[in-house]
Every structure is written in C-alpha cells, then in structure tokens.
Design brief:
By secondary structure, the chain is of the alpha+beta class. The protein has helices at about 135-145, 150-165, 175-190, 195-215, and strands at about 5, 5-10, 20-25, 30-35, 50-55, 65-70, 85-90, 95-100, 115-120. The strands form two sheets. Strands 1-2-5-3-4 form a five-stranded antiparallel beta sheet, with no helix packed on it. Strands 6-9-7-8 form a four-stranded antiparallel beta sheet, with no helix packed on it.
C-alpha cells in the first residue's frame, strides 16, 4: 500500500479508518467521492465502485488542539473508539475526558450535543470529586434504590397494568393512590437494595392507610 501526496493506494479489505472519518475516495472509474468512511464500500468486487486510493480529510484544530464539531458524518465518531478525547458541550457544562466510544457524537439539538473535541495524548488521572448537595443525595439514593430511569420503567409498567384493569375506576381514590405508591416501592426493591427495610415498611404503611380509610367508612 503506497502513499503519494497524502493519497493512499488501496487494494481492498476492511475499513482502515474510523467510521466517522471524512474521506476523499477515488474509484476504479476515476470518479472521486467525498463521504464518511462508514458510507464507503472498502472491499473490492471487481467493478467501477472499487476504491483504488483514498485520503483522509484531517479536521482543523486551534492552537490548543480543539476541533469544532457539528455532528460530522451522520453523527459517527471521528476517531477510533478507544482514543481518549476531551469534549465540550452545547450547555457549557464541565468538559469530559473519556474514550471516544463513550460519547454521543450525533446532534439532537440539546445541551448534551458535542460542540468541540480534542485528542488527549497523555490523559492525566482524574481525581474524583466528592459529591455535594443535590448530587450527593442523588448518588446516595441511586446506590440504594437503583437508577431512576430503571425505577421509572418498572413503576410505569406496573401502573399501566393497574390503570388498564376494567375494575380500576371502581377503587376509591385512596386505594388507587396507595397502589401507585406501592408500585414505586416495588420498583426500588427490584432495582436496588432488596434488603433495605424502609421500602418494605413503606409498602406496609400504604396498605395500612387503605385499611384505616376503609374502617373509617371510606369515601362518602
């Protein structure tokens, strides 16, 4: 495989560059194409579309190595997945330094969109910052109850079954509300620490509230 004026001769095979790399490829019929690497056919099949040489369009960076990013080629990662990169985000939040494959490179029009990145040649070890305030509360509850997204999924699934039952609206408001709260506690038990007594205690309390309401005559 030879190199001439940044052109690399190609005789077919597996894609030699990251999926998100921007490529000028020359085909067997001398036609040139400017495309993302993932959209090109790199194997040879003996027809006019076979790539015979290519060159990579290197992104321009500023003096500090930052490359502006607008979503690139179909939102594909522009560097090998295991490359350590530092990213800036649309919402102006803290820069994150991770392997490139951990990031979302596409555009969704929200604060999590990457607006710039740079390759970190020798990443310094990151000292973990102790969580404070709301973050500390979320971290502590996440370790005990499981991820909020997982809990939400289980809770909503249980509620959907309850709400869809033909007798659901024959229950009193107290009974319906109690079952909804119990659904949330069940999700925490399933996704978090199942031996955490408060969850079981809360379920018993919600059941006792319904019992108390029934004993007092329920809804008038």
């Amino acid at each position: 495989m030879g190199v001439e004026n940044n052109w690399i001769e190609w005789s077919g095979g597996e894609r030699p560059v990251p999926r998100g790399a921007l490529i000028i490829a020359e085909c067997r019929d001398r036609r040139e194409m400017l495309m993302g690497a993932a959209d090109l056919r790199w194997t040879h099949q003996g027809d006019y579309r076979d790539i015979v040489r290519y060159r990579v369009i290197e992104p321009k960076s500023d003096a500090d190595g930052w490359v502006e990013w607008n979503g690139g080629c179909n939102g594909l990662c522009p560097v090998p997945d295991d490359t350590i990169v530092e990213c800036r985000f649309r919402d102006g939040g803290d820069n994150l330094c991770e392997s490139a494959g951990q990031f979302r490179w596409g555009r969704e029009g929200n604060g999590g969109d990457i607006v710039a990145y740079r390759v970190v040649e020798h990443p310094a070890p990151v000292e973990p910052k102790p969580a404070t305030g709301v973050n500390a509360t979320l971290a502590e509850r996440g370790s005990r109850y499981g991820a909020f997204r997982d809990n939400a999924g289980v809770t909503q699934s249980i509620k959907a079954i309850l709400d869809g039952h033909p007798r659901w609206h024959t229950l009193t408001a107290c009974q319906r509300e109690s079952l909804h709260h119990i659904a949330s506690k069940i999700a925490r038990i399933m996704n978090g620490d199942s031996n955490y007594l408060d969850n079981w205690h809360d379920i018993a309390c919600y059941a006792m509230l319904v019992e108390k309401d029934i004993n007092e005559g329920g809804e008038k």
